[in-house]
Amino acid sequence: MITAVHFRNFKVLRSAAVRLEPFNLLIGPNGSGKTSLIQAMLRLRTLAALPVTHAHELEGQRPEGPRIEFAFGAPFREVRVILGCNTDELVCNQLVVDHPPGADGERQWTELRDWLRSIRAYLFDHYAMAVPAKRADGAELASNAGNLAAVLAARRAAEPAAMALLEDEFRRVMPEFSALVLRDAPDDRVELAARLAGGDEVVAADSLSQGTLYFLAILALAYAPRPPGVVCLEEADRGVHPRMLREVRDALYRLSYPRDAGLDRAPVQVVTTTHSPYLLDLFRDHPEEIVLADKQGQAATFKRLTDREDLRELMQEANLGDLWYSGILGGVPGQ
Amino acid sequence: MSGAPVAPRLRIALLSESPADEAALRVLVEFVLGEPFTAVPPSLRARGWPSVEQVLPSVIRHLHFNTAADGLVVVVDSDDSPVHQPEHEAPGYHHPYCRVCRLRAVFRRATKNLPPSHGRSRVLRAVGLCVPALEAWLLCGRDTSVTEAAWTEGQAAGRPPYTRRELKWRVYGTERPSLPHEVKRAVQEVSRHRGDVRRLENDFPQGFGVLARDLRGWREPAAAAPDR
Question: Considering the domain boundaries, does residue B92 fall inside one?
Answer without folding.
Answer: yes
